Amino acid sequence: MSVKVVVFEDNELLRESLTTLFSLDTNYHLVASLSDASQATAVIKKYNPDAVLMDIDMPGITGIMAVRQIRMVNSLVPIIMLTVFDDNQHVFEALGAGASGYLLKKHISTKLFEAISDVLTGGAPMSPSIARMVLSSMQQKPVVQNPYHLTARETQILASLSKGNSYKLIASDMEISIDTVRTHIKKIYEKLHVHSQTEAVSKAIHEKLV
Q: Is the pTM of this model over 0.70?
């Protein structure tokens, strides 16, 4: 079966070029090509692609923000960032958000399928300069497990909140009362030092607590 690919790219000419490239290789099927990532999670859920090509700089929802959103609903799909530069902080941040690698736009015509094949087999297309940044970050910032000391249930509820689920739905899914959900959420706010659901979800996503 052909590899299903979704593209998020605001440059119309580049999107057309990608469409042409995919049409020339029957091993790949471009199932969706969008000019922005405002509906990224919905698109991923709908098409369940084998790989995603994500422009790193887009108006509105940036590629980095889109990667974070996609990772909330799909932790496995390979995401390749499309970028003009191979040594900048944006690329590094995208990889930190959960991207699988990146492809320079100037190399798309010659290395597109190689990059996709690479990530599908567990690889990570990346320049030595970015690789050094990743390694340096890992060495300088040791991972702290559960820094806010959330309980397993609190983490579970926070994850459900991050998906946009209501208190009623959370209570139903976990077979507990709504009052119990409210009690847990109050404790979550206290531990995270936040005052609203929006703040809690934003912190959970930014600090990868769920």
A: no
Annotate 124-136 with b (16+ C-beta within 10 A) or e (fewer).
Answer: bbbeeebeebeee
Distance CA 148, CA 88 (A): 31
Say how many C-beta atoms besides its own lie within 10 A of residue 56's C-beta: 24
Is residue 105 within 8 Å of residue 40, measured between CB atoms? no
- The DSSP letter of residue 177 is -
Hey, CA dihedral for 181, 187, 190, 191, is it positive or negative?
negative
> Strand, coil or helix: what is 166?
coil
> What's the farthest any 2 CA atoms get from each other in the chain?
58
Residue, of 39 and 88, whose pLDDT is higher: 39
Query: What does the DSSP assignment read for 42-107?
Result: HHHHHH--SEEEEES--SSS-HHHHHHHHHHH-SSS-EEEEES-SSSHHHHHHHHHT--EEEEGGG
**Exposed (0-12), middle (13-18) or buried (19+): which is 115, by Cβ within 10 Å?**
buried
Per residue in 95-145, pLDDT (tens digit) is 888 999 999 999 999 999 999 999 999 998 887 777 777 777 666 655 567
pLDDT (average), residues 140-161? 83
